[in-house]
Amino acid sequence: MAKDLSKMPLPKLDDLFTTEEERTNANLEKVIDIKISDIDDFPDHPFKVIENEEMYNMRDSIKENGVLVPALVRPKEDGRYEVVSGHRRKFASELANKETIPCIVRNLSDDEAIIIMVDSNLQREEILPSEKAFAYKMKLEALSHQGKRTDLTSDQLGEKLSGKYSVQVLADEVGDSKSQIQRYIRLTELIPELLDLVDEKQIALSPAVELSFLTDEQQYAVLDCIECNVATPSHAQAIRLKKMSQEGTLTTDEIEDILSEEKPNQIPKIKFNATRIRNVLPKNIEEKKIEDFVVSAIEFYGKHLQKQKAMER
Questions:
Q1: Environment class of residue 5 by beta-carbon count within 10 Å: exposed (0-12), middle (13-18) or buried (19+)?
Q2: CATH class, range 29-109
Q3: CA-CA distances (angstroms) from residue 243 to 212, 213, 257, 262?
Q4: Cβ–Cβ contacts within 10 Å for residue 114, how many?
Q5: Mind listing the pLDDT tens digit for each residue in 60-93?
Q6: What is the C-alpha R_g of the chain?
Q7: pTM for this predicted structure
Q8: Cβ–Cβ < 8 Å for 178, 171
Q9: CA 141 to CA 189: how far, in whole Å?
Q10: Could you point out which of 29, 79, 88, 134 has its C-alpha 20 to 30 Å from the C-alpha of 195?
Q11: Is 99 left (phi over 0), alpha (psi -120 to 50) or beta?
Q12: Where do the structural domains in the chain lie, given as residue ranges?
């Protein structure tokens, strides 16, 4: 039986004039220079890019040696690119007045891009609690898309993924326990101002998790009390606030009463202007002797006042 030649697929021009080896090489990933102005940041990127001394060191290194590790980007439909890994290198390159940055271009789905973006940043030595919180949440959502997603802030966290719950897969990869991952993800329920206090180590993780169960309005009331009383809630106080919030009995007055309580073993912090102190100290005094000197000076002044009062009687 004769074949219908009209239905046979025609070879592409590339196939006619290139070898198989050339076609294979064409599909391999390459490092190319891309204009920084053509590259967008990853949407809702959870890791902060801060202009600090470490960033300036990276800028100086790029000025001298260039970008040694290419950024990873993915192409967008509008012809632009999106950073998957390399936000800090991109920013440092901008500070170094570079017009382009070496990049690896890779076609990635949203979930694939999220997983790579989170994994590449979790390798850093110092990661803020807020960065972990949103990074864990984003990656867990990406992993959970392989099954039906459940509430990411509940105990039933993530669906089965190749015989394991996705939260367990994440725990195995990052080294935090399942419960610790859940605690970090709870932080995403905090208002930004309270989350900043967690990053600044003014509020510990445990009370922060309890505060995350309060409504936004209640959290802002807590923030006002923290700023007025210059005191943050203890874990026990945060538990009480959460319980009253869930019972519907938490008011602004109750928040003020609880946060104004003196905590057990609480020692008030005294702050001094270091420059003012230094200006009245002997020029050659050693750093380790400053405290003793100041205490002795205060004791001496106290005795002087007592003598003056005795003479006035």
A1: exposed
A2: alpha beta
A3: 12, 9, 15, 20
A4: 24
A5: 999 999 999 999 999 999 999 999 999 999 999 9
A6: 29
A7: 0.67
A8: yes
A9: 16
A10: 88
A11: alpha
A12: 29-109, 127-189, 191-269
